[in-house]
Amino acid sequence: QILRYSWKGTPLFITTSPPAMNTLIPSCKNCGSSRVFEFQLMPALVSMLKTASNEDISVEFGTVLIYTCEKSCWTLGWQIPQEEFPYVQADPDQALFKVNT
């Protein structure tokens, strides 16, 4: 599983959720409404990421939570992308695998 969708659902944190998580999520920049959890990128996605030139890259995350406008304030035919809010929770084991150079 690389993506988990659950609009207005509850995200699955890799460790405990941050204290006062709701205060970390800004309002929609377009209409001022609250944002709600919509989907998350799961850690299994990391092993599938590649650059256009297939260079070896180092990307690590525990999970990425995406919060979107509660009112879905864009309209049909809207041509300008809406900015959503990502919250990245680090992989708690990442420090264990770092190689010192």
Fold blueprint:
Elements (H helix, E strand, L loop, with lengths): L2 E3 L15 H4 L10 E7 L21 E7 L15 E5 L12
Antiparallel strand pairs: 1-2, 2-3, 3-4
Folded structure, characterized:
With 101 residues, this protein is mainly beta. It is built from 1 helix and 4 strands, in the order βαβββ. The relative contact order is 0.26.
Q: Biggest sheet: strands side by side, in what order? A: 1-2-3-4
Give the integer mean of the pLDDT values.
86
Span of the ends, CA to CA: 33 Å
The major pleated sheet works out as: 4 strands, antiparallel
Low-confidence runs of at least 5 consecutive residues: none
List SSEs in N-to-C order.
EHEEE
Q: How helical, in percent, are the residues?
A: under 10%
Beta-strand share of residues:
15-25%
Number of strands: 4
Count of DSSP H/I helices: 1
Radius of gyration: 16 Å
The structure class reads mainly beta
User: Which overall shape is indicated by the principal axes computed on the Cα atoms?
Assistant: globular
Question: Could you provide a short overview of the structure?
Answer:
This protein is mainly beta and 101 residues long.
Task: List its salient traits.
101 residues, mainly beta, 4-stranded antiparallel sheet, 4 strands, 22% strand, globular
